[in-house]
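Okay, can you check this protein?
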Amino acid sequence: NAAAGYNGGGTGSTSWPCAGGGATHIATTSGLLSNLSENKTAVLLVAGGGGGAKQGKGGAGGGANMNGENGNGSGGGSLSGGGYSNTSTGCLSGSFGQGANGANCLDNGGGGGYYGGGTGGGAGGGSGYCDTNKFTCSGTTGGSASYGSISVSW
């Protein structure tokens, strides 16, 4: 299996070894984003990681309060739940702070994010997040030829 991106990237499989990229986050407590699922109020900012590509398509990670992009067969994470997987047996959806692992269905890994991307085909990207009670944020989700961006002010 392909190694996953640090902080929530899903693992790839031996057949499709593209792992998901990990999220970048800032929180008031230390630790991996997935370990803060019971303390979401500690999370201030999240930039989503991209999903592992298959047939030229892996979903880009989401910018500030933006969903991750869908992959070629699976969904990007949103602000309220993990990205869906396709209907392949054993494929999983993403979860808080964690992209789905592709090893279960011999596919690529989902991107980490506030909620991670699903797997099964080109994997979905993870969603981004901004605590709008503390910051003013804007941003974009990257595409096949560009990087995502985020702008934060307080």
Q: What stands out?
A: The beta strands are 24-27, 43-47, 129-130, 136-140, 149-153.
